[in-house]
């Protein structure tokens, strides 16, 4: 296995409400099987499996009032080499701002979403390898921009000022962005509804 990329911290954002999924089946989407088979790893577990060892540090950002997820992380985060950072979240941007304030990184951050379990490991590594202090990085597949996103350390103050649910969209819209073409549909696929899960 290649060595972790030093100077980078991966932040896995898992602090959302998942309200659309809960309305349909009353389950936390991050803890359900990632594919339509009971033997599949959970959505967040599958994401973390692909991220283990990519960067120097791996952190899961979770809402402190999501007791089921926090209990799962207490038991399982260590098996992925992940730390856990709990927040009182007012949305994606607020969670990201708190995490970047808490976890400075020399080169920057690889920001992944916990509900995107189909991104290939090599895609995470490709995006991470492009991150430098002055860069914003994102993947492109079939003409569409996706996740994960790379944020260079020079943007730390701007990210720390984020709030609400838009994440770093405004930052990427205004900044000079490196787009990496990838043959990976997973960069566009999140789990919002039960039917979003792939078959085995």
UniProtKB/TrEMBL annotation:
InterPro entries associated with the record: MobA-like_NTP_Trfase, Nucleotide-diphossugar_trans
The keyword Protein biosynthesis is assigned to this record: no
Start and end residues of each MobA-like NTP transferase domain: 11-174
Keywords: Magnesium, Nucleotidyltransferase, Transferase
Molecular function terms, GO-annotated: nucleotidyltransferase activity
PANTHER family with a match to the protein in the record: MOLYBDENUM COFACTOR CYTIDYLYLTRANSFERASE
Protein name: Molybdenum cofactor cytidylyltransferase
Organism of origin: Stutzerimonas xanthomarina
